[in-house]
Every structure is written in structure tokens, then in C-alpha cells.
Design brief:
It is a single-pass membrane protein. With 203 residues, the chain is of the alpha+beta class. The protein has helices at 2-45, 138-141, 172-197; strands spanning 67-68, 73-82, 85-96, 101-109, 114-121. The protein is 36% helix and 20% strand. 30% of the residues are buried.
Length: 203
Amino acid sequence: MNRTISVVILVLLAGLGIGATCLVQHTSAGRIAAQQRLIDSRTLLDMLAPDSYDNQPLEQPLPLENVPLTSSTLLGGYLATRAGQPSAVLLRSQTLGYTGAIELLIAIDANGKLLGVKTLKQAETPGLGGRLAEWPNTWLNSFTGKSSTDPADNGWALKKDQGQFDQIAGATTTSRAVINTIHDALRYFDEHRQQWVGSSAHE
């Protein structure tokens, strides 16, 4: 009898332990997910001035996925708004670098000017194209303020290719790929500007 009681008690204790563990996991799952979303937001949105939007852009995706462009592929995008008016578009673009895929996040304001570019993924050569992953990134910052027409199409190239941009030292292929991807994104934005930001933008 004592043995039976001991077994029952052990089973009950095990059940209580499992139940408590499940309860803790269930109640904390939402909090963990919310914290992860906050981390993702900070990582993805730190190119936008905090006072330039008041929505949750990552919860307002644009209707695009895996759109092939001239030199890259648009994987997706998000819309930032302030007081209900579009303030910026963030486009996730992928291109092929020297050693593999490069994924960039490209922020464009409602007037079509580049707010910033951030590397999300890359596998370029460390110390060369791999410097693309540094944040903040001086080379990527050199594109801020540009648009699809500023410079003109032939200016969207390396200086060694008669364009207007310097390259990452020792990383010609990587630099060309990024320049073409940024230009792709800016042109695509212009083509869809009315659809995404309507007439809220002011020249």
C-alpha cells in the first residue's frame, strides 16, 4: 500500500511539474514574441528617424514578394506612416555578390529619396566585401539622399565604370551588385509611388 501511495504521489508531483512548466511557457510565449518583434523592429527600422513614423511598419507589409528586377529580386516591403500618411517605404532586396547572396534593406522617403541602406545578410570575403555588414556603414551612407534620377542612370555605377560612386576597397563585384540593387529599388519605388504613397508626397 505504501508503495502504491508513493507511486501516486510521484505521478501527481510529475503532473504538477509538467503543468507548471506548460503554464509558464504559455504565459511567457506572448511576452517573448513581443520582445522579439521589438528587437526585429529596432534592427530593421533604425534607418528611420523615430519621429518620422507612428505605426508599426513591420505589421503593414506591401503586397509584393519575390519580384524579379534588372539586377536583384525584391523579397518584400513595408510601409511607414505618420498620422495616417505614408512617410517611407522599406524594401528588402536580394542580389548576388562575389561569394553569395546579399540581402539589403532599403529605406525610401515618400518623395523617392533614399533614407538609408542596411545589410541584413551577406557572405562576402571578410575584410573586403564583408565590410558591407558593418553598421553604421560609411560607404552605404554615401547613397543617402539619392533618387532614381539623381544621379542619372549612367551615374549609377562605380567611378571606374564612368559612374559617380566609389567602391568598397578591394570589392568591385560586391560594390557593383549593391549599387545596381539600390538603383533597382529606387526605380521600382518610382513605378509604384502612386500606389504606395499616393499624392501625400510633396516635391
